[in-house]
Amino acid sequence: MKQLTLLILLALGPVIxxxxxxxxxxxxxxxxxxxxxxxxxxxxxxNPEIDxxxxxxxxxxxxxxxxxGGDLRSWINLKFKGSKTDLMHDTLIACPxxxxxxxxxxxxxxxxxxxxxxxxxxxxxxxxxxxxxxxQTRLETLIIIxxxxxxxxxxxxxxAKEGNEKAEALADKLCKP
Length: 177
Fold this sequence. Notes:
21% helix; alpha+beta
């Protein structure tokens, strides 16, 4: 009987361990200019010669989001404990087509809830660009950022046609601690 109990416990071990691991969850923040701190924005300053902006947006887990852009392009950078991480280059390279820009006001965070505190490990957000064809076909890319304090970086991207569930799975695979 003891051997049977031991075999059952050994067989259930992985199930019990998996049940004990917290399940990844998503939280959302915004880059809506009406709900963030405007650092500068030439469109609001009515300066037609220069096209640039920098908005400080809410974040999670000690991070702040900086939505910035110029010359018909935009992206997000991160700020952690006063230190800014520049993600522009890797973000723009990940987007096919011309004039990549943040497609909406949503920033999706992936993380775990621990004792009532949300602990993010990744960000997913949508970029749009246009194909260099007669129709200027719209292209959308989901950008995945691994959160690692000042060393946060773009670690993946995929076409938005592949879907948000695939982006979440990739973020969880590449970023989950």
